[in-house]
Each structure stands twice: as C-alpha cells, then as structure tokens.
Amino acid sequence: MTMPADLAVLAVVVVRDGQLPLGADETVTEAGGAALVVGSGTRAAAGELDSGRRVWLLERSSVAPGALAAALAPVLSGVGMVLLPASPDGRDLAPRLAVTMGRALLAGAVRCTPHEVELTRLDDRLALRVAVDGPAVVTLRPGRPGRAGPAGRTEVTELPAAGPGTPAAGRGTEWDAENVEVLQPEPSTVDLAEARRIVGGGAGLVPAGTDGEAVMRLLADVAGALGASAGATRVVTDAGWMGYDRQIGTTGVAVSPELYVAFGISGAAQHVGGLGEPAHVVSVNTDPSCPMTLMADLGIVADAPAVLAVLADRLGVTGAAADQPEEASHAG
Ligand SMILES: Cc1cc2nc3c(=O)[nH]c(=O)nc-3n(C[C@H](O)[C@H](O)[C@H](O)COP(=O)(O)OP(=O)(O)OC[C@H]3O[C@@H](n4cnc5c(N)ncnc54)[C@H](O)[C@@H]3O)c2cc1C
Hints:
The protein has helices spanning 24-30, 42-47, 65-75, 88-101, 212-225, 234-238, 269-272, 291-294, 304-315, and strands at residues 9-15, 34-39, 54-59, 81-85, 104-113, 116-121, 126-131, 136-140, 155-158, 197-201, 229-232, 259-263, 280-284, 298-300. The protein is an alpha/beta fold. The protein folds into two domains: 9-158, Rossmann fold; 192-315, TPP-binding domain (Rossmann fold), CATH 3.40.50.
C-alpha cells in the first residue's frame, strides 16, 4: 500500500493511545488537510483533527521510530514532502525516515510550501528560506498557525496494518529507541511554545523601585505551583527581568496555551499576536478597558503585585523577596 501519487505534501502524525501531539493540527493544515495518522488509537485521534480532509489511519501498537520508519518508507515513497509536527515522536521519527528514504531533512520549519521551507535558527533571530527541489522530510515547530486548510468533509481511509518493520540496516539505524516511560514535561523548563498553561508578567507587575528580577522569580514560582510556565512581555525581557526565551509575541515565542493568566499586561498587538487562541484568559490589571482585560474571560481589576502576593501566600510559595526597593526604576 502506498499513498496516492497526487500528494505533494502529506502530514505524518504519530499518536499514542488516541492522543494527538502538540502541533498536529497546524501540521495537517500546512499539508493542505492530507494526513497519515499512525500509532495506537488512530481513529479517536483523527476525530480530534479539525484540519484533516483526506486522512489515512495506520494502527500500530509500537511507534519505535526505527521500525516505524522502515514500515512507512515504502508507504510514503510517492509523496514529495513528508511533514511531521516537531513533537517528541515527530522529532524521533523524522531523521530516521529521512535516512531510510534517502531524503533531505529540514528540521524546525515555521512555514512550508511544496517548493520552499522557512526555517528559523538561533532562537528565531535567523530566518532561512530553503528552496526544495526534491523529495524531503520536514518537521514543523508547534505554535505557528498554518495556512487555512480547505473546508469540507473529511475522508477517512483505514490502511491494512503494516508489518512490524525492521530498522534499515547499514546506515547506523540497526538499533531502535525503546520506550521506557513517558514523563510529562516540567512546566518551569518546558519550551514555552509547548506549555498548556502560562502565567505572564508585564510592566504593571513591577512597581517603580522594586527588583524586577525578583518579581519575575516569584511569578515563575507561582506558575510552577499552578503547574504552569512563566512568560513575559517585551518590556520585561528588554529590562532583563526574564530571559528572551520567555517573551511571548510577534518577536518572541508563539505560544498556544489552554490557559493564559496575564499580570499587569496591556495586551498590545505585538504581544497577543503570539498568544494563539487560549481557551481561557484571565487578566489582572488596574485598567478595566485595556485590550488584555477586554479579551479575557475573567478580568480582575486590581493591583497585580498584590494579587500575586496573595496567590503566592495561598499556594505556600515563599519565593524570593519581591518587595525590596532598589535603585533602578521600572519600565512601565
Ligand atoms: C516591532 C515591535 C515588536 C514587538 N514585539 C513584542 C513581542 O514579541 N512581545 C511583547 O510582549 N511586546 C512586543 N512589543 C512591545 C509591545 O508593543 C508592547 O509595548 C508591550 O507588549 C507592552 O508590554 P506590557 O503590557 O508589559 O507593558 P505596558 O503596555 O506598559 O502595560 C502595562 C499594563 O499594566 C497595567 N498596570 C499598571 N500598573 C498596574 C498595577 N499596579 N496592577 C495591575 N496592572 C497594572 C497597565 O494598566 C497596563 O495595561 C513589540 C513592539 C514593537 C514595536
């Protein structure tokens, strides 16, 4: 069984127990709605794909990447560009698939068409456009909204179960990865783009004369206690109170959380432009009519440092002292 020859781009989405990985929908959208969903619980996972229009299901109990690459290589041989979400399984499978199929690998794309892929490097400071003139395997970073996919009904085809597959011999892939345990990512260190819950800090969280870095450490501790990651606005990162890898926005990280709690953030277009479409937004701000509060499900009109302090207290977060005045004045 091979994929139809008319497929210029096909998304390959590896699923476990019916769970889609982060970035699955964006990848399928970027592939124009064509997807091969492979792994365990493929039918349930495909049902969660909003962007799928032509979907093939390949049920397998094991997604060990070397064996999976060997099993998929003949199935995908006619597809020009194989696109995978840069999820843990996608990142494991893509290079093995590229080696097994003898194709180029373009890792960490933010946009792609059948003939051109845009990659970013050096924490997004460098954008590279790579012309694609042959078959390729590409991974797409999550948190980048793809082009709108074609509307219409979804056509689902179940493929006959493939053999177990043996990792390609002679190319350094004779061994295969073994799944020992699946651990949930640590919210405090997870790549912000992959965080499901984010607590963000803005200029309004740092009153003049306070130590901005200590305030942001407290914010990160409170976020950790809530099982969330800490993010910030550019005002905060420019002031050096938090690293640039935590900046959310058009010139920062594009995120896609389910919950976003914004402390003292105005909601400038450049900030919310990188926010994706969170299901729930909470804004703590003294200004009830600022854009962040207007887009929030819950607007708390109050002093953000005071609310954070109460929250820290209730959660038993001692954190670093965030109330020591210092020489430097704040930016907001
Ligand atoms: C080319 C360009 C690219 C940019 N890229 C980004 C980007 O990627 N990410 C980004 O975030 N920004 C970016 N910016 C900056 C952006 O335009 C805004 O300036 C920035 O997002 C504002 O950050 P802020 O909300 O923390 O500060 P402010 O806009 O100053 O807002 C502070 C908020 O705190 C509230 N406040 C004040 N005191 C309190 C208090 N005690 N309690 C509660 N609330 C209080 C105020 O009402 C206000 O709403 C970019 C700008 C440019 C020009």
